[in-house]
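Sequence, structure tokens reproduced for absentees:
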Amino acid sequence: MIDLPFSAACERNRGPILEQLNGFFVDRRRVLEIGSGTGQHAAFIAAAMPRLSWQCSDRPDYLPGLRARLQQAALDNTPPPIELDVMDAAWPDQTFDALFSANTLHIMAWAEVERLFSCLPEVCADDAKLAIYGPFNIDGRFTSDSNATFDASLRQRAPHMGIRDIGAVNALAVKAGFRLCADHPMPANNRLLFWRRG
């Protein structure tokens, strides 16, 4: 029996995230979540939005706990999670009209962030929507003292980690064919960024 992975941050932020996704994903059908982690977002959001097929993905070491979480949730709209490392050559041979990722960009190396955005067109419908949640800097500046402290702790853990700047991330999105639709401030000095393709 696998102990279910758990993130206190996911429990805190899932409600505010759902509130925003209910509007932005209202006309969507197939979501790819990149970096599903513990599966808490997937189980909570998919249960609240049963019209969506919510496809989880993550690196191999996260899949056992992720599978266990989804099996416990027993939802009809969460297919088995798929293996996805953004640096792998092969991405899913499927098309999605929505993509979601939470608290991933500051963990990835910048080369991985670049690779993520460059590969999005391979799995996106022409009018796909993209939602990314997490802490972000604005014009090279931290939005709070707590984010500055968090960034320092990330870089102490691994030099490649760090809070990303919205402008730099948006430049990658634009290059991939997406336009920024909204930037929602969220609790605990996070943000939820929305893009649309085309």
In short: The chain has a mean pLDDT of 97.
